[in-house]
């Protein structure tokens, strides 16, 4: 028996040496050596087939071994590799977990499991138009005690963690990889991107500078990133330097287009498109990959007409662009929409404008006359916002939910949807408070592709939207169709844009859009200002109600969109008085025998004019002789400039703090709050300060007048928008004595009466019923 086996084995080895693998298999069958009885020989032929590149035979052999139920772990790994090559990620993951469990110790198994998870998530995101997300639990489980043996090991674990929202751990692993494998470019770029995601913009800028210096292939990307970062950091000289380097750099025309589109340079983007369209002949023809990238950038930024024009010029635009254009009516062989003949005509065709009204694009049935009517009680409400990060708008969003429930709306009928809730980016800051109210919460970042069916017409419409709107509508519309709320309420501009589209497509009866403190045009938002036509079309409809938190903000939107001011209702913010102590009713404030504590609570950015604030403090001390101690609460790009200016002015006693959100910790020891912004909406800081009984001083811009107590004891002081430090100090010095003596409870009472949560709930419910509010 042993001798017979040895002869069979020798023959199999000889046939494999001759690369006659199929003959070797047939020899085994003819010799009676079945898969079950002589597994090792079958595995040997499979290994030798693989080694000599005959993957078809190897795969067939492994399938026979595996189907027979006698496969070894090595065969399982080979099957997994085949599944990964075929992009059958479900099968790969199933095999790995079936054979090795969900927490394998073997590094090769962990690596493959990580690859199958990540590549499956990437395919689902790409195919469904969703943001790439990986499972947090799986990512943490695989990353635990994972020992990097190769750069690929590090790459897959870092990406799993990064796209699961575990940014700080991903950053830690990236730095480990850089130490272990040297500063490989892929780890440089990952650390730069993750640093930006966790808001360490200075570190991200340092890394992108290094990448721009040492990598020709990544130089364009790095310089584009630097231009964006320096604009956000308000570092003008560095921004100009990055833009100058980009102008001189040997980067693709697609990269130049991305800079133009992201920085709002529409004229440059149009000129580049014309150049690409007209240069697509002869020796100067662009590489196909570059022209495809160029067309995709146009599509992603809403310049769909230019993408159509490039295609008509026979510029390669790629399968995704072709498919999208064909589906939405711009088929080159004769579609339902007119094709542009010139660049000028193409520029006029923008997304989503060309699809308005959406009822026509989606071929929806017309609504009956008088729809949806006025006065009906909403049966269910869906509130939508971008995130629950630290911010005044997010606090007000949560306050609205609490006010509605406290006013009697059923918690199981009040739904809340958030696009982003990443813990590492602090986008979930108010989540515990929101959850405590009892409303139903939907995390749209976790919504799986295809959870609720979308029609082919809806999918075509979504594919043609600009990238940001596309991803938001793709996850919101299925939820709206499932819930069919009586009211769909978008909070802030970006969420409102998505709600306008999703609500229209789903036929929601009442759409409510709560806008920002000022219009995108006023605050120079380069992306949202492009949605002017969308907002104008949607807001003009009878079933759409629009609100702002101040009359100034409402009028600003009306002017921007050229709509009647009566279309915009004012629903003031609410102050949560559970966060503020009830102040005793004393007739006069006891003035402490110490220097006056003057505080500023604002982001350290150009708009807040912190340098003017510091110089006003300096003038109060040296010009008006006021004994004071200055406090600044906040963080931002100008922190270093503020420290330098304070030193130059001799304000060595300036106390700077950040990350504090408790009102008592901020305002408790202050005597006066000073705000000198050049642009404002309805400043929450003024409401909060007065809710703590503190008198306030502010430059009269935006909705400041609506936020400040204007008469009686404790009235605030309004300064000119263009006041000088010396004049501001003079006016403050004259105002201070009476302001400090004013009973704090009177200041707080003004806020309690004007900004009560009950009032917010009542006014919001009137809006939900379709009633216009008093515009006086």
Given the C-alpha coordinates, what overall shape results? globular
- The CATH superfamily of the domain at 381-570 is known as Glycogen Phosphorylase B
Q: Average pLDDT value? A: 88
Q: Number of helix segments?
A: 37
Which regions contain 5 or more consecutive residues with pLDDT less than 50? none
Oligomeric composition of the shown chains = single chain
- Radius of gyration, in angstroms, nearest whole number: 32 Å
State the distance separating the first and last CA atoms.
103 Å
Profile the largest sheet: 7 strands, parallel
By secondary-structure content and strand pairing, the structural class works out as alpha/beta
Please report which band the strand proportion falls in: under 5%, 5-15%, 15-25%, 25-35%, 35-45% or over 45%.
Answer: 5-15%
Could you give the order of strands across the largest sheet?
3-2-1-4-5-6-7
Q: CATH top level of the domain at 381-570?
A: Alpha Beta
Estimate percent helicity. 40-55%
CATH architecture of the domain at 381-570: 3-Layer(aba) Sandwich
CATH topological fold name of the domain at 381-570: Rossmann fold
**What is the strand tally?**
13
């Amino acid at each position: 028996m042993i001798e017979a086996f040895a002869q069979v084995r020798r023959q199999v080895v000889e046939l494999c040496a001759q690369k006659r693998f199929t003959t070797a298999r047939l020899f085994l069958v003819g010799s009676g050596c079945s898969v079950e009885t002589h597994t090792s020989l079958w595995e040997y032929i499979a290994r030798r087939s693989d080694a000599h590149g005959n993957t078809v035979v190897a795969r067939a052999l492994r399938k026979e071994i595996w189907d027979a139920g006698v496969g070894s772990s090595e065969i399982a790994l080979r099957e997994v590799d085949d599944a990964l090559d075929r992009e059958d990620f479900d099968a790969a993951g199933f095999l790995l977990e079936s054979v090795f469990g969900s927490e394998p110790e073997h590094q090769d198994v962990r690596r493959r499991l990580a690859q199958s998870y990540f590549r499956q998530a990437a395919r689902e995101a790409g195919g469904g138009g969703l943001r790439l997300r990986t499972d947090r639990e799986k990512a943490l489980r695989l990353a635990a005690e994972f020992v990097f043996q190769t750069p690929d090991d590090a790459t897959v674990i870092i990406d799993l963690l990064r796209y699961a929202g575990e940014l700080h751990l991903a950053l830690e692993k990236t730095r480990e990889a850089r130490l272990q494998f040297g500063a490989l470019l892929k780890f440089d770029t990952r650390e730069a991107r993750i640093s930006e995601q966790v808001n360490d913009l200075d570190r991200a800028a340092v890394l992108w500078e290094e990448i721009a210096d040492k990598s020709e292939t990544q130089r364009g990307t790095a310089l584009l990133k630097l231009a964006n970062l320096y604009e956000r950091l308000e570092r003008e000289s560095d921004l100009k330097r990055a833009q100058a380097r980009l102008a001189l750099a040997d980067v693709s025309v697609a990269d130049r287009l991305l800079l133009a589109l992201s920085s709002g340079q529409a004229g440059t983007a149009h000129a580049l498109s014309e150049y690409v369209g007209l240069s697509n002949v002869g020796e100067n023809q662009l590489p196909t990959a570059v022209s495809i990238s160029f067309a995709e950038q146009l599509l992603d930024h809403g310049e769909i007409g230019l993408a159509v024009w490039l295609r008509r010029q026979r510029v390669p635009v790629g399968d995704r662009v072709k498919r999208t254009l064909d589906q939405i009516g711009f088929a080159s062989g004769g579609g339902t929409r007119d094709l542009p003949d010139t660049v000028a005509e193409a520029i006029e065709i923008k997304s989503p404008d060309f699809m308005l009204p959406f009822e026509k694009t989606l071929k929806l049935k017309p609504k009956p006359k008088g729809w949806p009517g006025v006065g009906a009680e909403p049966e269910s409400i869906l509130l939508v916002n971008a995130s629950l990060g630290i911010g005044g708008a997010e606090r007000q969003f949560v306050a609205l939910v609490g006010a509605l429930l406290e006013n009697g709306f059923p918690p199981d009928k009040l739904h809340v949807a958030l696009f982003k809730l990443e813990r590492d980016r602090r986008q979930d800051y108010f989540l515990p408070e929101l959850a405590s109210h009892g409303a139903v919460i939907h995390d749209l970042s976790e919504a799986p592709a295809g959870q609720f069916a979308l029609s082919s017409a809806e999918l075509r419409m979504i594919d043609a939207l600009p990238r940001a709107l596309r991803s938001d509508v793709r996850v919101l519309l299925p939820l709206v169709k499932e819930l069919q709320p009586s009211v769909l309420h978008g909070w802030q501009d970006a969420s409102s844009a998505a709600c306008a589209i999703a609500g229209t497509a789903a036929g929601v009866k009442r759409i409510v859009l709560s806008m920002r403190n000022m219009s995108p045009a006023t605050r120079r938002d380069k992306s949202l200002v492009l949605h002017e036509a969308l907002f104008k079309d949607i807001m003009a409809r009878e079933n759409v109600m629009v609100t702002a938190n101040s009359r100034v903000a409402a009028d600003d939107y009306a002017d921007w969109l050229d709509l009647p001011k009566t279309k915009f209702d004012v629903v003031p913010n609410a102050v949560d008085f559970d966060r503020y102590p009830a102040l005793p009713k004393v007739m006069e404030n006891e003035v402490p025998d110490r220097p006056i504590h003057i505080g500023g609570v604002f982001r350290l950015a150009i708009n807040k004019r912190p340098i003017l604030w510091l110089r006003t403090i300096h003038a109060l001390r040296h010009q008006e002789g006021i004994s004071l101690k200055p406090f600044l609460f906040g963080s931002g790009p100008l922190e270093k400039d503020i420290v330098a200016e304070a030193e130059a002015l001799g304000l060595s006693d300036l106390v700077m703090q950040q990350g504090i959100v408790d009102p008592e910790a901020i305002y408790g020891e202050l005597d006066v709050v000073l705000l000198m912004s050049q642009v404002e909406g309805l400043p929450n800081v003024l409401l909060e300060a007065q809710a703590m009984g503190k008198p306030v001083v502010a430059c009269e811009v935006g909705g400041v007048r609506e936020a400040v107590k204007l008469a009686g004891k404790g009235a605030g002081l309004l300064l000119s928008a263009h006041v000088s430090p010396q004049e501001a100090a003079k006016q403050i010095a004259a105002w201070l004595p009476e302001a400090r003596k004013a009973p704090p409870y009177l200041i707080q009472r003004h806020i309690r009466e004007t900004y009560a949560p009950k009032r917010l709930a009542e006014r919001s419910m009137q809006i939900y019923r379709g009633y216009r509010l008093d515009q006086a």
